[in-house]
Amino acid sequence: MRNLIYLTFILFVGCASTSTGKYYTLNNVAIEGYDLVSYFEKQPIPGNENHSYIYDDTTFLFSSNSNLELFKLNPLKYIPQYGGYCAYAMAQDGKAIKVDPETYEIRNEKLYLFYNQWGNNTLKSWLEESPEDLVTKANSNWKIYLSKNN
């Protein structure tokens, strides 16, 4: 059954799987403009253009100047794993799939984002399976993805 759900997931987001960038962007802004620092505070909130920063040739938005400054001090602390693409899809088959920025998990002080549309919340699948094993698979697939797309 899980394979059928995942196959349906891939069919619905097939066009998103053709992404080749290092980061998940929409309109040239990373993670649909969400403030990455806010994930590590209470909850994710959108950033705004008044607090933007270009890092690694990608625009990131923040909700406040203080969050922008925190990001500048240690970008790698805040950047989501797998460039902000769906962690579950990266673990399953190395695909760069778009995410719902409000579907996330902080695990071992790292941010993981997930696809959540069409009744398919991949965070639930991630948690039902072995997240530790999935992280290992996703890390391996991410290295392969980067070698092909950088």
Automatic annotation (TrEMBL):
Top-rank lineage group of the source organism: Bacteria
Protein name: YHS domain-containing protein
